Amino acid sequence: MLHGYDLATFRKRLLGWFRQFRRDLPWRRTNDPYRIWLSEIMLQQTRVAVAIPYYERFLERFPDIQTLAAAPQEEVLRLWSGLGYYSRASNLQKAAQQIVGRHGGQFPAREEEVLALPGIGNYTAAAILSIAFGEKRAVLDGNVARVLARLGALRGELRTSQRCQRLQQNANSYLDPQSPGDWNQAMMELGATLCTPKSPRCLLCPVSQFCEARKLGIAESLPEKRKKRATVEVTLAVGVFTDGNGRTFLLPPPVNSEERASADHVPTLVSRMWHFPAVSVTGDPAAKLRAYLRKLRCGAGKGNLRLIRAGKVRHAVTYRDITVLPYRIEVKKLPHVSGAKQVPLVAVSSLPVSNLTRKVARAALLAEPRAREKGER
Ligand code: SF4
Known about the structure:
The protein is α+β, with helices and mostly antiparallel strands. Helices cover 46% and strands 11% of the residues. It is built from 17 helices and 7 strands. The protein binds iron/sulfur cluster.
């Protein structure tokens, strides 16, 4: 750990570097806690370059907490559509509604009140409080953890609770109390631009003289790799109904987690947003899909549904490797399914749906009549 003169020099170098070389990002031009909060939520699972246009479009439509709180959820999801991890968007709106209800629409400045908001954990709270309110809270995210592990040449798995505590203590002790917001951003910027997971650019690093891993020549091998979770392969059969006018229907997302948990026939991978009827399969996919459609009362019981394979779609979500088998089902009249909405198949991609649903819609549209006849089950 650094103390006294070394600590002061370390802080001065890192802050000086950050203020000279930081990237000009839209959320760095404001102290508005709403905008900083939004950027932190978007950046949780998304790269900066991808997040920027979403951030700008979102703020154009929802310029403040009140507008976001009052918007239809479907519109919030539509503007999030393509970013994935949609619980982030619904939590964001729920938190906005709580801020309007409990805090008069003003983002709270007290830590316990911030942490009580849905979707906000220690990292996000520390980022908002330090950047927007100048509170002395050190952030610890993946980038900062990597920088700290290398600075102190810490070996072993970083995600154990003991190691996290140690890293948080280190982050707290480095924090510049005069400029906590800039300091946190400087640490994250160092991790994002120079102290990268592969090939850290130590020659350009403003604090290389304080880095134990660089001195030992082990920077690139830290943090030590954790054991990878084995990939799980999942196969889904998805039914895409179309009537003579090219219309299809989508099922609504379950309204709460209980409904999600009980809906074992509707894989949660596709059901957080509007989706085609889908079922996980192991054996005969068409038979399993027919049985599911029968439960949904889509007319499969009468034995008059023709399921036509529309190619194959691959999709990956975290450790899951998903094979999707779309089936186009042409009917004279779409079945009436409770809560479903009917839309033109060509318009599905512009609705608030997941990327997986978009891929399925595209595959169903692309299926050539002859190819479909061939793949008929
Ligand atoms: Fe990271 Fe290299 Fe700087 Fe150490 S010297 S903090 S490993 S970039």
